[in-house]
Amino acid sequence: MFSRQTIIAFIALVLLAALGLYVGTYTIYLLNLAMIAVIAAVGLNLLTGNSGQISLSHSSFMAIGAYVSALLSARYGVPFWAAIPTAAAVAALIGAALGFPASRLHGIYLALATLGFLQIVQIVIEEFADITGGVRGMRVPKPAWFGAMLLNEYEIFLVVAVSCVFAVWSATNILASSYGRDMNAVRLSPHAAQALGVAVARVKLGAFALSAVYAGVAGGLLAMVVGFIDPIEFGVSAALRQITYIVVGGMGSVAGSVIGAVVLSGLPEVLRPVREYSDVIYTGILLAFLLFMPHGLVSIWDAARLSLRRALARSFAK
Amino acid sequence: MKRILSILAGAAVAVVPAMAAAQQQGVTADTIKIGAYGPITGPAAYIGLAGRDGMNLAIKEINAAGGINGRKITVVFEDDAHSPTRALAAVKKLVEQDQVFAIMSVAGSNATVGTIDYVRDKGAVMYVSIASAPPVTWPFARNLFRGGTTETARYGELYAEYLATNAKNKRIAIMHGREEYPRNEGDATVDKLKNWFQIDPVARVEFNINDKDFTSQLIQVQKANPDVIAFFGNPAEAAIAMRQARELGIKQPFFVGSNMVDPSLVTAARANAEGVTGFSLIPFLPGANSPEMKQWEANWRKEYPNAPAGRPNNFDLLAYGDMHVLAEGMRRAGKNLTTDSLIKGLEGIKDYRVGPVATPRTFSDKHHIGNLTLVPMQVKGGSWEPVQWQSKRQSDILSRYK
Amino acid sequence: MTATLAFQLAIAGISVGSIYALVALAVVIPFKASGVLNFGQGEMVTAGAYIALVLTTLALPYAVVFLLVVLVGAIGGIVIERALIRPIIRAPEFTVVIATFAIGLLIKGAIQLRFGDSPAAIDGPFGMDPLLVAGLRFNPTSVWIFVCMLLVTFAVIAFFKYTRLGKAMRAVSINAEAARLMGIRVESVWRWAWGISTAIGAVAGLLVAPVIGVNPEIGTLILRGLVAAVIGGFTSVPGAIIGGLAVGLIETFSGVIVGSTFKNLVPFIILMLLLVFRPYGLFGVAVAKRV
Q1: What range defines the domain where residue C15 resides?
Q2: How far apart are CA A115 and CA C168, in angstroms?
């Protein structure tokens, strides 16, 4: 039989698909961006929230996904359903390559290594302009099923929705697996995990590669949805934006990734009246959560559920 | 999982677009609603903030003078944060949710390019004031117009002609940054120097964005012993390079790209900026000694009394001039204002400008490049002043629009 | 490469390197004392440059401007430490790293809102005419930066060696809990470590403003400063200085040797290689992890 997660994922997908039929293309575009943000946040949260490794280069793996898939489709006419998985695989390989030294580093040294990696990816995109378009960016061909059979707006939306639901579903299952438990153990105490027989270095390296897959898919989808990519889109401010998603949503929680990404993707709409200040407000929110609500929005829900359960238990006990 | 579901569904509160009205979208009996976008946050906020303010000043003047054929202009402005992704969201919102009649871009090049495919498909007029990206005007699209800024190739033509003929320079050194805009300026200038005047630069060196030291490049330039140094980059970089050049004993004059022909170069480089030449997209720069300019600045300051230092800048003026051009197109479209009549109205514009603070614009049904005129300027006594010089060569730019 | 060219490049390298060295120093001090790496330090440099700009327009003498910049920088750091860093000092390192990033961005955002993006400039204390010595040209401000950098370095070394607070700081950096048991007020050490480091950052801003101009992007110096700190091993004051000068020299010379295409990559490739093979730098010592 199907697990509870799988059934919920199916229902979510059906509801999203139905929703897409009723809204205009502007709303569809915003939904696409939000779902792409969710995929990226889910991947980052596995790495940072669960396995406890700081990464300031998550957006670079999005860049790798975006540029590899865009180049595959622009230069070789590879259809999106082959280009994006290939791009994600490339991101995973590079993620593993970075994870290899990174698994020996911790804390600020890891922050520095990933920051250095982000700079290198940025410079490589800018310097190899003949391939990547450099700073002036690169137009991405419209996605095709085969040859000239292009996807329409709604079909693109469905592809993003399926990817997003699959990302959430897979991350939930990974966390429920023994590998997920190992990741959390490595975060809580690498020494204890080691003593209990967890292969700490392998878990850390795996988390880097895994999170790169999510970022790679998110990048590939972004290139497809927007149709134009440039390096600024994947710079350090993008990396910090993704960190803000998981901090605000809730570290180490798949639900937190989803909440954070969706809420903050919608934030520019709310901030419209004060938009000149929106950068500062955004950063202020990040800092406020770090200081005052380190477990994110999801902790409100957890606390509410707990007290509800207690109240119910009490009323039944009477 | 359940909570994820409810959040996903809840976040996507359906915004059903209003039914398309029978008449032209964004135009009512007494209003014309236009949309505009540009970066007012992020790394290029100085472009969008100025573009927005200059445009709004023009709209205020137009409405105060009775509007356009009895209709007042209203504007919805969206921030793109200098990101193509956000720019596309902004334009989709303007077209589908705000139902605007036409769009004014006061955005940078990449953000504008990110919207082009969509705008082409939708067919609404997009008038681009500041972005110089080639895809705006080529391949030709009936609904895309470029106003105050011009084609990169045109910079190359004018720079090359001025450098080679005005000062009779034979030995020209070129320094340029590695970003899109300065690199394009460098390429275009080298190309035209070669094709038109058979001059190869005696030195060509590159530098990186945010470089703080130009010694190695300047030493190469110095060795080539040029008559003039053409520098393409941004004012902060130019200020450092010019100071270091003087320190190294390089006495040759500097020529700078059009984005640096701006009061900020003088603020940053001060005494070292004296005598620098370059081309401007507008006939006078803010701070120039011209009565028209002083009057315009006074009007601007009345509208924005709390502006930060360095404003109004060139982008205020560009967007101001271009909003008046777009309005003139609407005026010529007549009472029956539709996308089609606006395009025809704009295409009828020949050498139109709102006043001496703008350069004239010309469009035709063959090409939508509004401006091929740049004004040579020189820093004299701490401000940019026009130099008497006329281009004598026919531009090659329009030859492909037949 | 002629000798004159090499000398001129070396002068340029040491000039920018001195700036990187000061930033690296400002990064190393609070790290030594509290294990916190301040990724927002670049914005303290920017803030210092803008404070200097504002004070200079008030026509104050340079010495007064200098002292006020030190004072405002120190107070800023002490306030930030008390209000924003102290509450999360025991949180996971991730929280602290991201918080310092956020503080930097807030400072930069505030500067951009107040001053806009257009560049400005201020004069150096000794004018801008180059000094000619033995056929080589020196920028007087660069010489002044180099001298200040050396003075700051010696002051910091002497401070750690001879003052009570400096010794306490070293004790706290080795083991905060043991230091606390010995009667050292660890909180006070943290406070002064931040105050001193942000004051150095702000002074760096004041010093570099005549050379690189005043604009909101000055803070990107932090990247080079971090590379310098990594070369120096993050715990060594002389290491940070040598690291800073090394990055400056590598940059100017690599521009000539490998071309500007790879000039930008070089510092980051060095950073990655060091982190992989010598994570505690060329001068640092492996420290026990803060638990």
Answers
A1: 3-277
A2: 32
Q: Which helix (H) or strand (E) holds B157?
A: helix B152-161
Best mutation target among A26, A138, A164 (most B Cβ atoms within 10 Å) is A26
Same domain, B317 and B244: no
pLDDT by 10s per residue, chain A, length 318: 678 889 999 999 999 999 999 998 899 999 999 999 999 999 999 999 999 999 999 999 999 999 999 999 999 999 999 999 999 999 999 999 998 888 788 788 899 999 999 999 999 998 888 899 988 899 999 999 988 889 999 999 999 999 999 999 999 999 999 999 999 999 998 889 988 888 999 999 999 999 999 999 999 999 999 999 999 999 999 999 999 999 999 999 999 999 999 999 988 778 877 778 888 999 999 999 999 999 999 999 888 888 888 888 888 776
Q: How far is CA B294 from CA B192, B290, B291, B320, in A?
A: 36, 6, 5, 15
Q: What residues contact A221, with CB distance under 8 A and at least 6 apart? A: A32, A36, A39, A84, A159, A160, A163
Reported ipTM? 0.92
For residue B96, the enclosing domain spans: 23-150+296-371
Taking the Cβ of residue C155 and every Cβ of chain B, the question of whether any pair is shorter than 8 Å is answered with: no
* pLDDT score of B12 more than 80: no
Residue C266 sits in a domain of what CATH number?
1.10.3470
Tell me whether residue B187 is in a domain.
yes
Residues B35 and B177 in one domain: no
C218 → chain B, closest CA residue: B210
What residues contact residue B269 under an 8 Å CB cut-off, 6+ apart?
Answer: B235, B238, B239, B242, B243, B276, C121
Show the domain range for A74: 4-236
B159 with B232, same domain: the answer is yes
At position B234, the amino acid (one-letter code) is N
Selected residue of B222, B243, B260, B316 to mutate for chain C interface (largest C Cβ count, 10 A): B243
Decide if A159 is inside a domain.
yes
Peptide bond into B235 cis (omega under 30): no
Q: Which residue type occupies A158?
A: L
Angle among Cα B360, B362, B364 to the nearest 5 degrees reads 175
Query: B325 and B385 share a domain?
Result: no
Six-digit token pair at B314?
């060139």
Residue A79 lies inside a defined structural domain of this protein:
yes
Q: Coil, helix or strand for B284?
A: coil
Q: Each residue of A87-98: b (16+ CB within 10 Å) or e? A: bbbbbbebbbeb
- Give how many domains chain A has, as a whole number: 1
C134 pLDDT tier (thresholds 50, 70, 90): confident
Q: Cβ separation of B268 and C121 shorter than 8 Å?
A: yes
Chain B positions touching C9 (Cβ under 8 A) are 215-216, 219
* Region C116-139 average pLDDT: 82
Cross-chain Cβ contact C99/A290 below 8 Å: yes
Q: Is A199 a member of any domain?
A: yes
Q: Is residue B7 part of a domain?
A: no
| A240 near B CB under 8 A | no
**Does some domain include residue C286?**
no
Q: What is the CATH number of the domain that holds B109?
A: 3.40.50.2300
Residues B256 and B300 occupy one common structural domain: no
The Cα–Cα gap between A136 and A133 comes to: 6
Count of CB contacts below 8 A, B vs C? 100
Claim to verify: residue B321 and residue B195 sit in the same structural domain: no
- Quick one: tokens of A192? 């204890």
Maximum distance among all Cα pairs of chain C, rounded to whole angstroms: 60
Q: Residues B175, B205: contact at Cβ < 8 Å? A: yes
Residue ranges of alpha helices (H) inside chain C are 3-34, 41-57, 62-80, 93-115, 140-162, 164-174, 176-181, 186-212, 221-232, 237-257, 260-263, 265-277
Please indicate, yes or no, if residue C291 is contained in any of the structural domains.
no
Is pLDDT above 50 for B2? Answer: no
User: Does residue A276 form part of some domain?
Assistant: no
